[in-house]
Predict the 3D structure of the following.
Amino acid sequence: MSKRIDVDDLNVYYSDFLAVEGVSMNIEPKAITALIGPSGCGKSTFLRTLNRMHEVIPGARVTGKATLDGEDLYGPQVDPVAVRRHIGMVFQRPNPFPTMSIADNVLAGVRLNSKRLSKSQAEETVETSLRGANLWNEVKDRLDRPGSSLSGGQQQRLCIARAIAVKPDVLLMDEPCSALDPISTLAIEDLMHELKSDYTIVIVTHNMQQAARVSDRTAFFNIAGTGKPGKLIEMDDTTVMFSSPREKATEDYISGRFG
Amino acid sequence: MNLLAARWFEFVATGAGIIILVILAAVAAFLIWEATPALTADISELQKISWFNADSFLAFVAPLIFGTLLASLLALLVAVPLAVSIALFISHYAPRKFAGPLGYVIDLLAAIPSVVYGLWGALWLAPVIDPVFRWLTSFLGFIPLFADYQPPAKNIMTASLVLAVMILPIITAVSREVFLQTPRLHEEAALALGATRWELVRMAVFPFGRSGVISAAMLGLGRALGETMAVLMILSPGTLFSFFLLKPGQHQTIAANIASKFPEASGVSVSVLIATGLALFVITLLVNMAARWIVSRRSDFSGAN
Ligand SMILES: Nc1ncnc2c1ncn2[C@@H]1O[C@H](COP(=O)(O)OP(=O)(O)O)[C@@H](O)[C@H]1O
Ligand SMILES: [Mg+2]
């Protein structure tokens, strides 16, 4: 559990369009790394390359290098399906499987990995994962109800439970709170604090306060203009980034004097 | 202005709905009215009809209902797995430049008139399938289903295979549309968990498309139940409750029976045929209601929310 990711000179293309250019960064284990920046600067694009989810978009490709604890993520021998089983992802909009019960949603990924799961193993996984996602007490009496019967915030925590049920090395979150109300947002931020002791977490957020509250390291992305590629401007400890950034652009963005 | 347009639309839509109900009721009333003489006639009256060989109307129509259901269900059994596979191939496996033309060709199958299917089944498929049936009957003949094949292949299996081809396009087209509408959100959820293509299909596509595929199958079943020409031209008729799928002279369907007897019918024999038509009408209604029930049963868990 909890591995580091090192990215070296990564470019991401959508067909001929260079969306993200020349990103190099180190993502530390057992820490939360926040990716911030104006919308359209390639945060989601970059995040998706870390578990090769970009490959499901026709025409999307990368050049450069990314490693998980030293192992090449893009190597010709590496199966993207295997990468995604080690690097979980939580999306902007909660997406539990609507036809599955709450319990089956939690087990969806586990069942892919190990086909046979005894009843007691299944129950244990469901409980620990839901506890891990701070959802157990709210749903323990209705595990056989559909996942879509939950509120948005609960659905998002269900998705987190589903992601951590497979015990991934890394958890990627793309604006996991942007569709949620403030209370649910707080619940998820608390949860991230707890998950940090076990997982490497990368979170994209457009909310600066959130980045400041939850993350240990912050990376600021920016674009020079529409049609230009997004770039990593600077990355540092979150406290440093928010108190004394090296770059003027970072300071402008963080203080709201953007553009 | 907008309000007026909305009113108008409401009026037109409601009107259309009412017209459909009225037509349905009119058809039902016509069938019941015209069937009544046969249903109330004395049995000796009915037995004067040359082809009426039963002790009651019910005993006459029952084997026809059996034949109709058997032919349609066999067709469905063949067509649904095939149609779902093709639809899935088009929606999630085939490269784009290949998927379009393939879907188009399948759609074209729907444009072929059923009498042409009948010719095709009787003149081409029957001889071609003959060795297969021979093989089945000699090696699996101990199973009653496959026993006693006699060439030419004018049996219910051949008729059902032709029906299957006929209902393939509608089932494929509807299933394909449903599969294509699988929310990207759910597909990505499956992929991000490390699902392979097939696992993605099982986790996201099939559950989402399930009720749509059932509806598609019911549309196909509806067509198969009422299909006349193809069955009439292929099937050597009989009126038994028989599960010998390869034996000729065992089965007949309601629609094909009506078509074959109607030209020479008059008086009460017309009424008997219309009464069998009423039975077909009721069966089709029941099938549709059953389908709705199946679709609604787990609507809690459906993808639509
Ligand atoms: N599927 C796609 N196909 C083509 N271009 C895309 C796609 N997704 C994103 N882009 C482009 O890539 C750039 C970065 O987008 P994105 O990563 O979504 O930014 P962010 O998440 O920072 O708002 C944008 O210019 C966007 O238009
Ligand atoms: Mg984004």
Observations:
- The mean pLDDT of chain A is 91.
- Strands of chain A lie at 5-14, 17-27, 32-36, 60-68, 71-72, 87-90, 170-174, 200-204, 217-223, 230-237.
- Chain A is about 35% helix and 25% strand.
